[in-house]
Amino acid sequence: MGMILSNVAPLLARLALAVLFFYAAWQKFSGAGRVAGLISSHVLPVFRLGIAESSLFWRVTGLSAGVLEATGAFLLLLGLRTRFAGLSLAGYLVAVTVFMHAFPARAAGDSLTEMTQLMHLFKNGAVIACLLLLAGQGPGWPSFDQRR
């Protein structure tokens, strides 16, 4: 049982995380303008550096995040460079969590928005833990990493 679980659990984690990150990437590709507005509205004013909300900078930032998410999801799905993909996505998600979800008080008294931001904060923490676990334990079987 232990041998089966030690191979199946990482496979299921990789598949679930790949679906999560593919969906997140698709959201960024299909709604670049909306994502640009969300990113610029969540970033603390000190980090905006006078860049307008509709600026090309925020669109490129969103699309770049989508490329990183899609690439990481693809690597996780295949079990290819799994440790690198896990660490990369975990680092990215730490930054996203800090800049986008760690300050729910900015919701200006909207308790539903505050609750949603806290939910994303805790969910991202769990996903980061799963990514770090994959990075530390490896991809399981089947994977391209196991073939090398």
Polypeptide structure, described:
It is built from seven helices and no strands. The protein has 148 residues and is mainly alpha-helical. Helix 1 runs antiparallel to helix 4, helix 1 packs across helix 6 and helix 2 crosses helix 4.
Keywords:
148 residues, mainly alpha
Our measurement of the CA-to-CA distance between the termini, rounded to an integer number of angstroms, reads 25 Å
| Relative helix content | over 70%
Give the overall average pLDDT.
Answer: 84
Instruction: Name the structural class.
Output: mainly alpha
User: Sheet with the most strands?
Assistant: none
What is the CA-atom radius of gyration, in angstroms?
Answer: 17 Å
Beta strand count: 0
What portion of residues belong to β-strands?
under 5%
Topology:
Layout: H1 2-30, H2 32-42, H3 45-48, H4 56-78, H5 82-101, H6 111-137, H7 144-147
Helix pairs in contact: 1-4, 1-6, 2-4, 4-5, 5-6
A few lines on this structure:
This protein has 148 residues and is mainly α. The chain has helices at residues 2-30, 32-42, 45-48, 56-78, 82-101, 111-137, 144-147.
